[in-house]
Write a structure and sequence with these properties.
By secondary structure, the chain is of the alpha+beta class. Helices cover 27% and strands 44% of the residues. It has a six-stranded mixed beta sheet with strand order 2-1-6-5-4-3.
Length: 108
């Protein structure tokens, strides 16, 4: 069963998912710390290039099915125009200021 975005436990992760689903680049930038990094299927990626291609240009959308680790780990159905829908895992590292310093995703 899908968890409504507003009910996600961690505020930074909630803001991240909201920004992805709204295709709001400014909101995503606001939740990411300066110098934030990311990885996809275990490989480090350029954050700006990856988010442009996999989220914004291809209309990415997350439906969260499960959360763990205080809301810092998600299992979600992720879809975009490039790849269709796939089951994915997401994990987040958040700094003391509540901004995401790193996120990792990949097929689950």
């Amino acid at each position: 069963m899908t968890i409504q975005v507003a009910r996600l436990s961690h505020p930074a992760v909630r803001d991240f998912v909201s920004a992805v689903n709204a295709h709001d680049r400014d909101a995503l930038r606001a939740v990411l710390a300066s110098g934030a990094t990311m990885s996809d299927d275990g490989s480090e990626r350029d954050l700006d290039d990856w988010t442009a291609r996999e989220i914004f240009d291809s209309h990415g959308h997350m439906e969260v099915d499960n959360e763990a680790d205080g809301g810092l780990a998600l299992l979600a159905r992720y879809s975009n125009d490039a790849w269709g829908e796939m089951r994915t895992r997401w994990s987040f590292t958040v700094d003391d200021g509540g901004r995401i310093t790193h996120f990792a995703t990949g097929q689950a």
